[in-house]
């Protein structure tokens, strides 16, 4: 495996995953170029591509973390891949989501389409799929708890949340290496029912709610209920949801951003 210091560009560098990834790459001695619409050094809107060629000049590896549930991922990937070809980028690493090929959700379909673009790009490529981050589950449960007295949840759905810094560490390892194609999924340490996760969240946040499981309709719900988004055979993460919540609470009490 190649381990020499590289010039690595990270898209979505100011996002939930991009921030710890950039920090990890820099700590490992790589030259890191942080690209996002709000980046102070490389402010690029990937759907337009203005400034992209300058950002990619001399780059060995691109780690593509930029994504939006509001749409535009496929167009952004096309622009990025075209720029990477022009710049002679050797390795394109892409982070995706477990279940994009099994859950018929619009956002997941777009993520799967981007995977295919990466695979057909003509560049050396690596794709890692991960389960949902602790942060996402936290935000979902925080929003659900705004309902008075009860905490409504989709019945029969489980999740396997993973710590984002563990995903960042794995991406940094892949970016430092050679193109590897589709690598094994990265899942959190435990498959938990949403009701169980909700009770842990209520205990950590000091709220009192009755957990209310509601059956839903639709193909996406049925796929989630069937566990299409889970990777129980790849439960390689170590940080549990309770440990994430405890660290989050400690950070908040210390006055640091949560």
UniProtKB/TrEMBL annotation:
Domain NAD(P)-binding: 12-135
Source organism, top-level taxon: Bacteria
Xref: SUPFAM superfamilies: NAD(P)-binding Rossmann-fold domains (SSF51735)
Pfam families on file: NAD_binding_10
InterPro entries: ComplexI_NDUFA9_subunit (IPR051207), NAD(P)-bd_dom (IPR016040), NAD(P)-bd_dom_sf (IPR036291)
Protein name: Nucleotide-diphosphate-sugar epimerase
